[in-house]
Structures are given as C-alpha cells and as structure tokens.
Design brief:
152 residues, alpha+beta, OB fold (Dihydrolipoamide Acetyltransferase, E2P), 7 strands, 29% strand, elongated, heme, membrane, metal-binding, iron, CcmE
C-alpha cells in the first residue's frame, strides 16, 4: 500500500511538470512574433535583418523623399543621420507625419526596402519616441526641441 501511494505521488509530480513544460513551450511559440526589436537605419545598413524578421525602425523622414504615388502606396526614406533606409507603406498616414519629422514603423526589410505595415508619428510637436532620440544622439544629430536658443 505504501509503495502505491509513492508511485501515485511520482506520477502526479511528473504530469504536473510535463504540463508546465508544455504550457511554457506553447506560450513561447505563440508570442515569438510579439517581440519586435527596434533598429536604427545605421544598424540596418551595417547588418540587414532577414526578410522574415519583423522589427521596428525609427528616425526622421528625410527631406525631399516623401512621394505619394497614384495609389495608396507612399514611399520615403528614414534616416538617423548616419544612414537612410527606403520605406514603402500602403495605407493612411498619421496627421502629424511629414518630412523632417520623427517616425516609427513596424514591418520587415524586403530587397533593401522596409515594407511597413504600421507607421506611427509623434503625437504633438515636441514628442519623439525614446528609441528615435537615442538613435539620433548616437549619430550626433539630435537637437532638443526644448533647448533654449542662444541669443546675443
């Protein structure tokens, strides 16, 4: 009788352990695309990601590159001052989106062009995402919009 209780206890512990491992594996598998890494244009130029990887890109919309085609596709280049990456997006852009403005896009790099599925722009005239500020500071081109302008 004593060995039967011990055997049952071992079976229960094994089943619970197996259930925990299976639930962890299923959770990890289901959420693997949910983790999107931010990359600056300079990082993409140095080591381009695979076309299967979904990631976020951020920087400033390069002046003179915003082209609105006849259809819904919009093309432009995003830069961090060190490199620029061509971007293609099909859809409606945010109201505050424009040349020289900060943006963050989600998508993948296909044949050297970032195919965006989502474009985010700053939500007011002074806001810029922290990732974009860090990337611009790294390239030495960030200018704080709140800094006082020196006068003589």
């Amino acid at each position: 009788m004593k060995s039967l209780k011990k055997q049952r206890r071992i079976q229960v512990i094994f089943i619970i352990s197996l259930a925990l491992v299976v639930s962890f594996a299923l959770t990890w598998y289901a959420s693997r695309d949910a983790f999107q890494f931010f990359r600056a244009p300079s990082e993409i130029a140095e080591s381009p990601p695979s076309s299967a990887e979904i990631f976020r890109i951020g920087g400033l919309v390069e002046e003179g590159t915003l082209v609105r085609d006849q259809g819904e596709t919009i093309t432009f280049r995003v830069t961090d001052g060190g490199a620029s990456v061509p971007v293609a997006y099909t859809g409606v852009l945010p109201d505050l989106f424009g040349e020289g403005e900060g943006m963050v896009g989600t998508g993948r790099l296909i044949d050297g062009t970032f195919q965006a599925t989502e474009i985010l722009a700053r939500h007011d005239e002074t806001y810029m995402p922290a990732e974009v500020i860090d990337a611009l500071k790294e390239q030495g081109v960030y200018q704080d919009p709140n800094a006082e302008i020196g006068t003589n």
